[in-house]
Amino acid sequence: MKPACKFALKAVGAGAATCFALSASAATVTIATLNNPDMIELKKLSPAFEKANPDIKLNWVILEENVLRQRATTDITTGSGQFDVMTIGAYETPQWGKRGWLAPITNLPASYDLNDVVKTARDGLSANGQLYALPFYVESSMTYYRKDLFDKAGLKMPDQPTYDQIAQFADKLTDKSKEQYGICLRGKAGWGENMAYGTTVVNTFGGRWFDEKWNAQLTSPEWKKAMTFYVDLLKKDGPPGASSNGFNENLTLMSSGKCAMWIDATVAAGMLYNKQQSQIADKVGFAAAPIAVTPKGSHWLWAWALAIPKSSKQQDAAKKFIEWATSKEYIEMVAKDEGWASVPPGTRQSTYARPEYKQAAPFGDFVLKAIQTADPEHPTLKPVPYTGVQFVGIPEFQSFGTVVGQSVSGAIAGQMTVDQALAAGNATADRAVKQAGYQK
Question: What is the DSSP letter of 180?
């Protein structure tokens, strides 16, 4: 019984029993999520869920992406039960599910229509055939560009650009005196920030994180070529302070008209095409993520999903919430509030079949195809012992991927050379897999 209720009991006798009943039956569901626009919208619309479920109260913990990952990992590995719902991704879900850290997702109501959820998304959030999270949105990566700036400069973006072409376009479209930058890319350190994008560049340049025997490959010619290209491009044609820009910072730059091109998550399309959120809504074009020597691993596959830790004391209430947040009904609510272009993408086939979505989201079919063609099982030109396009699907990657990201960010900021960054990164990656027993 809460102290306030104790006091009431003394003061007004049995009438305060109501206070006790309420506090005993109301379940508080604590949700850890990230500060991306789609999640902010979820919080905004969540009173509708609380109204329909008066016995459930939602408590939101909204964090920057890197911080969310640290907090969620600490909570799940220590079993502290701080969170009842966690926003985690295609990297963590299968690993944590396999280890018994997540509540399996079972007995979904027929109205949820699990078969409507895109199969790639379901597979990516399963381990040994068991689903461990429900996808809130699913994304690949793509190229965004300003059609008006391309027309003015007499340039034409191909459906499938190469990185050489991207560099040429960026050179022609950079005008720093007008705060117009030829290209915006992630430079902010983090395995899921700059290394998510950077790994796709390495993949398409023919590189890989490890060879078949788990020897790190960061000092290979392919890595050097890919990372030199990426660092030089950002230094020459990117915005100032690029080494601290992640997804959200670049989204702000692009939607306020500062970038001629941006290569990043397909989920940004809904925001860039939304007139309320984007100054370039009627000027933005899109193309496939660029390629260099191979199309393999040039575009990533990611899901932000809602999972329930085994340590949660409110699993039933948490399950009710994640079913609602990933339902067809929730998608309709976002469409009413923000317009069809901004609904969470990549999760449901029924969304892509809606005439309203087709009309509002000219990028829809392209995005679905990008998601369905990303191949985490065969992400590189040469064979590898791991799965994952923009990450290495082992628990140790979270740590060494971030350390490598810090070195690469240092190279963008001019604190070290690309060769120094990669030599340091190679040593870190090698040490991590050796200690973990991958190298024989």
Answer: B
Q: How far apart are CA 144 and CA 218, in angstroms?
A: 28
Whether residue 14 is predicted with pLDDT greater than 90 in this model: the reply is no
426, amino acid identity: N
Q: Calculate the CA dihedral of residues 76, 82, 87, 92 and round it to 10 degrees.
A: 0
pLDDT of residue 8: 36
- DSSP helix/strand/coil, 114: helix
Residues 65 and 45: their CA atoms lie apart, in Å, by 21
**Could you tell me which residues come within 8 angstroms of residue 78 by beta carbon, excluding any fewer than 6 positions away?**
none
> Distance (Å, rounded) from C-alpha 141 to C-alpha 250?
14
CB 304 within 8 A of CB 137: yes
Closest CA to 352 of 344, 363, 364, 341: 364
Per-residue pLDDT tens for 260-279? Answer: 999 999 999 999 999 999 99
Q: Which domain holds residue 65?
A: 3-139+302-360
Distance (Å, whole) CA 214 – CA 210: 5
Look up the CATH number of the domain holding residue 162.
3.40.190.10
Residue with tokens 């920057």: 64
Q: Please, what is the average pLDDT of the chain?
A: 93
What residue has token string 């078969």? 115
Q: pLDDT tens digits, residue range 195-228?
A: 999 999 999 999 999 999 999 999 999 999 999 9
Q: Is residue 370 part of a domain?
A: no
The partner residues of 436 in beta bridges, in order of sequence, read none
Rounded to whole angstroms, what are the CA distances from 47 to 39, 44, 203?
14, 7, 43
Token pair listed for 429 = 């990656």
Q: Are residues 221 and 349 in the same domain?
A: no
The Cα 201–Cα 408 span in angstroms is 13
- The answer to the question of residue 375 being in a domain is no
